Amino acid sequence: MKLHPMIAALRKHKAGVVLIALQIALTLAIVCNAIFIIGQRVERVGRPTGLDEGNLFVVSQQWVGAPSADTPDGVAKLDAMLKEDLATLRSLPGVASAAPINSLSLLNSTWAGALSTKPGTNFTDRGSNVRTAYYFTDEQVLPTLGLRLVAGRNFNAADVQNHGFREQFTYPVVIVTQALADKLYPKGDAVGKTIYVDGSSSPSTIVGVVARMQTPAVGWGDNFAWHATLVPVRLDANFTRVAVRAKPGQLEAAMKATAPALYQVNRLRVLDDDSVRPFTDIRAKAYRADVGMAVLMGVICLILIGVTAAGIVGLTSFWVGQRHRQIGVRRALGARRIDILHYFQMENLLIAGAGAVIGIVMAVGLNMWLMSRYEMDRLPVFYALIGVVAVLALGQCAVFVPARRASNVPPVVATRAA
Amino acid sequence: MFGYYLDLAVRSLKRSPGLTALMVLAIGFGVAASMTSWSVFRAVSGDPIPWKSSKLFVPQIDNWGPQGRDAGAEPPNAMSYADATTLMRDHRAKRQSAMYQISPSIVPADASKHPINVSGHAVFGEFFPMLETPFLYGSGWSAADDANRAQVAVISGKLNQKLFGGVDSVGQNLSIEGGSYRVVGVLDDWNPQPRFYDVVNSGGFDSGSEDVFVPFLTAIQAGIPNDGNTNCNATPKESGFVGLQHSECVWIAYMAELDDAAAAKTYRDYLQGYAREQQQAGRFSWAPNNRLRNLPDWLDNQHVVPSDTKVSLLVALGLLLVCLVNTIGLLLAKFLRRSAEIGVRRALGAPRAAIYMQFLTEAGIVGAAGGVLGLLLTCTGVASVGWVMPKDIADLARLDVSLLVLTMLVAVVATMLAGLYPTYRASRVQPAWQLKSN
Prior knowledge:
The structure holds two protein chains of two kinds.
Chain A: H1 4-11, H2 14-46, E1 56-63, H3 72-91, E2 95-100, E3 112-116, E4 130-136, H4 141-145, E5 149-152, E6 161-164, E7 173-177, H5 178-184, E8 194-197, E9 203-210, E10 228-231, E11 233-236, E12 239-246, H6 251-265, E13 269-270, E14 276-278, H7 279-286, H8 288-322, H9 324-332, H10 337-374, H11 381-407
Parallel strand pairs in A: 4-10, 6-11, 7-9
Antiparallel strand pairs in A: 1-12, 1-13, 1-14, 2-12, 3-4, 3-8, 5-9, 7-10, 8-9
Helix pairs in contact in A: 2-8, 2-10, 2-11, 3-6, 8-11, 10-11
Chain B: H1 2-15, H2 17-45, E1 56-60, H3 81-90, E2 95-102, E3 105-107, E4 116-117, E5 120-123, H4 127-131, E6 135-138, H5 143-147, E7 152-156, H6 157-164, E8 173-176, E9 179-187, H7 199-202, E10 212-215, H8 216-222, H9 240-245, E11 253-257, H10 261-280, E12 291-294, H11 295-301, H12 307-337, H13 339-347, H14 352-388, H15 391-394, H16 401-427, H17 431-437
């Protein structure tokens, strides 16, 4: 098929051609960026925390009229209360194990700090320090959270200390995540090595490495999401948090039994609707905004594609109507139906192709503008190419109906007056 | 004549129902998507206290020095205890309050009920007149109460309902964190969004309510711990809550009321002098690096409007633009299809203006129909933002008359603008050529 007569014909419909091309270009620019946003969010939401999330729930509660955590006497009392709670939870029929912990992956309440391989550094200096989030917990943490130990050993009961939550204390032993271990000791020999926490000069020994564990911070903490440090310390405060693993299939029952059992131990505490939460709930809340954004972008993309397809159908139908007689003439001169069909398909491919070229430029421009203002990442070429293929396919699908109608114009039309 | 054009337009639209439906659908969806995201954007970017926001200021003092600064030499976004209490003692603004977030437990007088946990802030007495909080009963507390560390409290209407059944509870006692506090005021419905007096801790928007306010110094003395963020550039030297107060950790929000530019200038000079004093005393080893922003600038600086909200609005506006380009194309097809009719009208003496009138009326009708569809879809959209946006933000998006009027207006005006070019082309139709070819 020769393109020359086609282009000559398009010159007669400059406005329509420009409008379709512009619409395709804008659609491509927006859809590329929207799909890129969707891809990023889906990837974020799909990240595994490293925890065995099923059957896991969290109990967060507050003591009423509790002794101050700032005095040794108060700390001792608070610790006794926490241990009593732990014993109660561990003895519940549906519970497999439980561990005290100050926060949990995706929970957003973060105790952040920095680790260094050298003593006495200034811990705000990013060069010699690696950012981390601490989890203060006990020796039951690995089975409770389902963390996988890849090197070294778990904590044992003798490692576990207790301190008031605002007390200054040292961390003789820690377990770190693989990502953090690799950052501190890139040779992969972190177990047994010494690190220094928060610019301190007292050494901590890495006794174990777990495969993966996400930090609590979602959003602002994304740049150290996999740098978790586990510290065998029960923190004593006027609030407590315990991670609990229910026996398989008994999550509901174990959660239901929790509040009554704890009230029975001590009535003077605040346990409200939010106090006993399954981990699935924590995950859903943490990523709600991301899922929502992905859904929103998806809906907008669908509307956009629908509108553009409708526009192509509308304008092409108009052209088919306008050229009714010419089509008849061509048919009478020997053009087959398939030739007419191909003509309109080719014409659409030309216009859509031109639109796609402009659209790529606009997509990149929009992406750069979003990057400069709203912390977006660079649009990968892959997405742009997918977008191009998508709009070309969209054009072909949309043009098919009017093009087929054109191909059905009988040759006899040529002999009739317009 | 307008009635005639209306009639013509309706006839013409009826003649090609498919094309008309396409245009109406495109405009309806485009307008509804834009208006729904606009309702969210409007809600989160609104001024929480428009009559006063330019007089409310947030001071920042750089007590960490160059090592603790992020890009842009920005000082910490909260204050240390030492700086906050000195600024309160110096009392240089018309009104001011240091504050920190608390989350105390309250034991109901009714022994059969379980204790509850509430959120609130420890503030100074001037907090209430400065932010013009509405009182249902009683009032805030006095400067003397602040100084004497009085055990008084202001509670929300919601908590009053829960604990006292909604009656005037002023003078009643309340057990907060084990201490007995006398209720001096009950707030009327007051939950400004963004929670502008402490955006660092609320992240701007919080669907929870603030139920209890106690005097700052009383809370410090009673050891009610800070429930908000604590940021440290070094580990505190001493343990406990007292250790935190003696440290350079930042955890206190601060707001000052300054009536005019001159007052702001004086306050800025005062902050400068204070930082220089600290430098001379050896506490700061760097030049003063303070900030004093008014509320709108502060909300902007703290990125209170989530970037997702802005991006959604932009993408939705992009969608509207595509819908309009689409409408231009379809209207063009529709109008030019009637070239013969235009030719006849022109030949019979209709001026170009009449053609303009006729076709813009038609575009307007398409816009109005799209607007009606857009209204329905906007209602659906606003009702369902809760599915796609975080609760704290989705709750703020409201449907009101101004939004509905705007929806209709955008639909009609945008469609008529889109109809301009097709109408221009229609008015250029050569009557003679049309008549001849037929």
